[in-house]
Amino acid sequence: MSSGFANILYLLRSECKYSQRKVAGDLGVSQALLSHYENGIREPKLDFVIRVCGYYNVSADYILGRTDEKRSVVIPRDTDGQRRVAESAKRIAAILDGEDDEALSDAVARYFAVATEIIARILEVPEERYDPMRDADLKMAEAALRRIRRQEL
């Protein structure tokens, strides 16, 4: 984990004007451990990263320093954007039908299923808070897909 995580963790807490004691208590860790995370002395486990994402309502990509956007899901609202998304989904389905590699096909299908579930949920309840578990599910599906692609190379 990069020092970007530590800095972002500190900045999020500072933006909210929360004390380390409050955040540590809310997240179920000691103040000393939170201080170590914020100073880059210790690296957190995945469950802590997920709790932090939910606590501050930010994406895992943001907290890990991979993007400047606090939330990672963007849905095109215009008709043309929706049409492009539907066409892309059809192309992916067609590719999966013709794919001989069962592991790759399964990984793509899993990624696609998780992504479409996230999109459908956001469309159903747009005001719902960001759910880091859905983001984590998508990242895990993406990682599985990348592992399979690396094995093929």
Describe this structure in words.
It contains 8 helices and no strands. It has 153 residues and is mostly helical. The chain starts with a helix and ends with a helix. It has 2 domains: 3-63, 434 Repressor (Amino-terminal Domain) (Orthogonal Bundle), CATH 1.10.260; 79-152, no CATH class. The longest helix is centred in the last third of the chain and has 23 residues, at 102-124. The protein is 71% helix and 0% strand. It is elongated and about 55 Å long.
What labels describe this entry?
153 residues, mainly alpha, 434 Repressor (Amino-terminal Domain), 2 domains, 8 helices, 71% helix, elongated
Question: How would the blueprint of this fold be written?
Answer:
Blueprint: H1 3-16, H2 20-27, H3 31-38, H4 46-56, H5 60-63, H6 79-98, H7 102-124, H8 132-152
Helix pairs in contact: 2-3, 6-7, 7-8
The tally of domains stands at: 2
Helix tally equals: 8
Helical percent range?
Answer: over 70%
Question: From the alpha-carbon coordinates, what is the Rg to the nearest angstrom?
Answer: 18 Å
Task: List SSEs in N-to-C order.
Answer: HHHHHHHH
Count of individual beta strands: 0
Report, as a whole number of angstroms, the end-to-end distance.
Answer: 26 Å
Coarse morphology: elongated
**Strand composition percent:** under 5%
**Sheet with the most strands, sense and barrel status:** none
Mean pLDDT: 80
Unreliable runs: none
What class do helices, strands and sheet pairing give?
mainly alpha
